[in-house]
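Before going further, it is useful to explain how the protein records used in this thesis are read. An example of such a record is reproduced below.

***
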Amino acid sequence: MSVQMVLLPVFIQIGLTFALLFGMATLRTRTLASGETKMADIALRQPNWPERATQLGNCFANQFELPVLFYVLIAIALPIRHADLFIVLMSWVFVVTRFAHAGVFVTSNDVRPRSLAWFAGVLVLAAMWLYFALRILLLI
């Protein structure tokens, strides 16, 4: 697989993370500018943001949980030339689950579909790691 094909889903996932960062920053700045949130109330990372700002902040923070295992897998698989078609296809599926998860998180925040999207991502990522580990350990 070409480097571009392997890295494109990574870049898309990173794009999602930056989009959430900019959305969170914009919303937080607005709440501070309007006086809805006081600087002293959040200066030590106290959870005193309004609900919507907290929702976006939590979704952004979530991008540094499960996706880290995705980034590590690609960072290892790419240089040792084990990022094959299966890894690339599953990378796309994983990224789609992350978008679904984030979409629910920042809109309805309905925990049931959000959890289903998250768990689908977990299963995909676990399958990717299992496949990768077996290829390495069995020298396939």
Notes: Helices lie at 3-34, 39-42, 51-62, 66-77, 85-106, 111-137. The CA atoms of residues 90 and 124 lie 7 Å apart. The mean pLDDT is 96.
